[in-house]
């Protein structure tokens, strides 16, 4: 499909309408190629969405309202106990069948770089095993191969990169012969982005001819699955359930038959694995039950009094932490995207370098900008 860029005049008119015409302040200083790239970036923006987000999340400070009634969520133990034994056996059979019949896929969120791990490159290329120093991508690929060999069937692997690491990640797979997997079963696509704003709602420039953007959060992975065509590809393949995990977890069970089976048996749209927290104030998402639905309260939104609250048996009432491992139904991802992406946005105030009115790059000493992101949970 050919993307036709509107004229300078048309885009200028649109920017003035939405109060963002400052984005073309340095247009005359750009090369023809830079001008075309900038106009393309601007034209791709969803101004209707931006106009809705600015008064709600940028110029205003949204307040998190704690639900009135919070209880512990229902959980399944790692090992079957008593009457659960039969259900677990049934679940395992269902999970194995889903794998054998090509109804399960793996989805890895791999947009990060290895900077914090002293590695120059995509985080998925970080050596993760002690002896052979296998990169994370190879660890996951070999696990997928072992799953296919054990249960039969094809398990496609969908990998969400980010704009900064996409080309490097693709090249890594090509240079390593897709780590032994069929290239047709490895689908890579970049994460979406959201522009950064100043606190008055003006979109920032990172360069004179480049908008300031940041990844739209791991919740954006569900939008990227849809907009990239991955969900449509899953429909063609007959995939019904998606095994989701983040790239920095070498111990993850990439396709867990029991997990998938329990998810299917309970008719769930999204299921999550949890661990018991190391303490009441551990900085992880907290699983709770609100109005009959399992949800997550971020540690930063959990009052300390509630975090320390205990049950009659002396255990923490909120003791289960999220580890970013989920099973998500394909139809659920499709539904939340079909009429406009429906996950809520989260506001974060950060230090973001920008081009000021004089055309100089400013490295702020204090948080100066608003980033918007969504959470998958």
Helix-strand layout with pairing:
Elements: H1 8-17, H2 32-43, H3 47-58, H4 84-100, E1 104-109, H5 136-151, E2 157-161, H6 166-175, E3 186-190, E4 193-195, E5 197-198, E6 205-207, E7 210-211, E8 213-215, H7 220-227, H8 230-237, E9 241-246, H9 257-265, E10 270-276, E11 286-290, E12 293-297, H10 304-307, E13 320-329, H11 330-338, E14 345-350, E15 354-355, E16 361-362, E17 369-374
Summed up:
This protein has 377 residues and is an alpha+beta fold. The chain has eleven helices and 17 strands. A six-stranded mixed sheet has the order 3-2-1-9-13-10, sandwiched between helices.
Description:
- The protein is of the alpha+beta class and 377 residues long.
- It is built from eleven helices and 17 strands.
- The chain has a six-stranded mixed β-sheet with strand order 3-2-1-9-13-10, sandwiched between helices.
- The longest helix is centred in the N-terminal third of the chain and has 17 residues, at 84-100.
Report the major sheet.
Answer: 6 strands, mixed
How much is the average pLDDT? 91
Distance between the termini: 34 Å
Protein structure class:
alpha+beta
Computed CA radius of gyration, to the nearest angstrom: 23 Å
Fill in the keyword field for this structure.
three-stranded antiparallel sheet, globular, six-stranded mixed sheet
